[in-house]
Specification:
With 146 residues, the chain is of the alpha+beta class. It contains 4 helices and 7 strands, in the order H-H-E-E-E-E-H-H-E-E-E.
Amino acid sequence: MKIGLVLGVLALSAAPAWAVLGESMQSVQRDQQNLQGSLVTMTRQGYSIQQINAKTGHVIREYVTPNGAVFGVAWQGPTMPDLQQLLGSYFTYFQQAAQSATRRHGPLVVRKDEVVIESGGHMRAFRGRAYVPRLFPSAVTATVVQ
């Protein structure tokens, strides 16, 4: 019984977690440790990019305002990341679009006033991006989130 509990705790603690879209970027270092990847910070005019390069081949970029809010995220890798963790409260938009009866094959695209989500790819080559338009720093456009 104790072994099962220990294994369960270890499995949960090993699950990757990313900074959450629309929230504070304070979890980036924890994300880096969970992914056992390297963290590269790139400073741009009006925002920064926190990029985690994981040993698994995943690359997660978190776009952060000067006051620490994550206004965009982008991902690429051999498998889909945990989008529920990555998108946070915006995940329901992704879920609804994925379950839509009118959904066609190809990339999934959600364009709402609150959030834009684009996700696609195929086995061993998944990629996507999501951003919250109202959180963009002044003079920054959606083209930076890639």
